[in-house]
Amino acid sequence: MRLSPYSRSCLLLSLLLPVVASAHPPGLSSVDIAAQQGGGFKLLLTLSRFDAEILSPMDADRDGRISEGELDDARSDLEALPASIFELKIDGNPTRGRCEEVWADDKDNVLLRMSYPGPSGKHITLQSNIFDRLPGGHRQLASLSASGQEEPVSIDTLTERHRVFDSKIPGGNMTFLILGIEHILTGYDHLLFLFGLLVIGIGFRDAALIITSFTVAHSITLALATYDIVRLPGGIVEPLIALSIVYVGIENILKEEIRYRWALTFVFGLIHGLGFASVLRDLGIGDRTGDGWIVLLFNLGVELGQLGIACLVLPFIWKVLQPRAGFRRISIALSVLVALLGLYWFIERTLL
Fold it and tell me: For 246-278, how does the pLDDT look when each residue is reduced to its tens digit (9 = 90+)?
């Protein structure tokens, strides 16, 4: 049977359609989620040039490559892309991120790095709506890696019908307990303040009262400042913390017997709490419901570190220094050092 020219054309077209349809394979992108030490997440979105061009046309000269100039022209559109295609939730609470960097690699892929500040939480979900803007059949490889680890702890392939990446977060909010411990152990001004309070050789009861007073005070301002109920700029708080160290050192020198130090400690503890809160504010804590648990864990970490230091310092003072003749002179010498270091930090934080 002979086919007419029209019939032959239709048959040829029907044979070629599958070839044409498969000439460009379904797109594949990836989104790598990395939990950060101390809270928050980094997301790295990798797109092929073909898919990036669909989302934000940029190959103006049609040479099949993306130049630096073309990328710069499309940068604002690309930076707005993550907010429109990703919905990230931590423990059910929506988290907003921002695009920090856009670049093209040597394979002509376009990469976007996003930052999502906030608590780590225990559970993460990421809904990707990129499929609404790309040809059918697109797939997206999603992975989650824990802080300090390169190997992902969870991997999934997202599609148009399966858009949600769902995973537990290794470590969870306990990260903030560790962060609190690390902050007090590396917060040399806070440690020096604590040392200045204890170096006069007080007994266990007075030491416990002072530490408890300091704890209660900075817990109050830590919570108030984290939730932005009370806020003082760092340019005021940090010099005040240094002055509190100077005052304690001078008081140790001038007074042989110090009463009601717990009350003075409470006042200064309020100031130190504002300094502690700056760490949590920088991580975006306090911007959502459920952050109270984070504040509690961080504060508990601070207290554990503080108690650990006190357990090391007090036996040294009681057993090594105090029984010696001339302990008062030793205490004064150490207090002079405390006051001078506090004065140095005050000058550094106000004039330098």
Answer: 999 999 898 877 777 888 889 999 998 888 887
- Do 231 and 114 share a structural domain? no
Provide the whole-model pTM.
Answer: 0.56
127-138 pLDDT, tens per residue? 999 999 998 889
Residue 119 has φ and ψ, to the nearest 5°, of -75, 155
State residue 22 phi and psi, 5-degree precision: -100, 5
Do the domain assignments include residue 2?
Answer: no
Q: What Å distances lie between residue 332 and 200, 243, 323, CA to CA? A: 8, 18, 15
- Asked if residue 260 and residue 195 are part of one domain, the reply reads yes
Give SS3 for 291: coil
Residues forming a β-bridge with 125:
89, 166
Query: Helix crossing, 188-198 with 292-316: angle to 10°?
Result: 50
| Whole-Å CA distances, 279 to 99, 298, 331 | 22, 10, 33
Domain encompassing residue 310: 174-350
Q: Are residues 113 and 130 in the same domain?
A: yes
4 inside domain:
no
